[in-house]
Amino acid sequence: MTSYQDAPLHKFGAYSTVGIGGPGDIVMVAGQLGNDADGAFSPDGVEQVKAAYDNIGVALEAVGLGFADVIGFRTYVVGRETIPEFVAGRDARFGELYPSGVYPPNTLLIVSGLVAEDARVEIEALAVRPAR
């Protein structure tokens, strides 16, 4: 397996942003928070969700993939009250990312907190790298 580090997104611990194997293998994008490149979080949960998808896009692009290669998401939201923010942010991004209306599966988990106190959402992605 090869791991990739992406300094602008890699501010919250000792881990690789993306881990991949050979062609046709699964690509795992570590949970991405809704922060900007400087590590700052918007106080708006919808904006954090949109930023988390943007950060996933940066990680995928770094290994030559895109959202069309994603086969699933796992999402963590802080508190049940943040679910509407997650849905609104996801709907805003998915309209752009998946114009066909066919979306990858997503598992949604409600947690009491994330690694950064201001974080309201963390999203990880699984993708498949096409065989070449």
UniProtKB/TrEMBL annotation:
It holds the Pfam family Ribonuc_L-PSP. It comes from the Bacteria. Signal peptide: none annotated. InterPro entries: RutC-like_sf, YjgF/YER057c/UK114. This is RidA family protein. It comes from Mycolicibacterium diernhoferi.
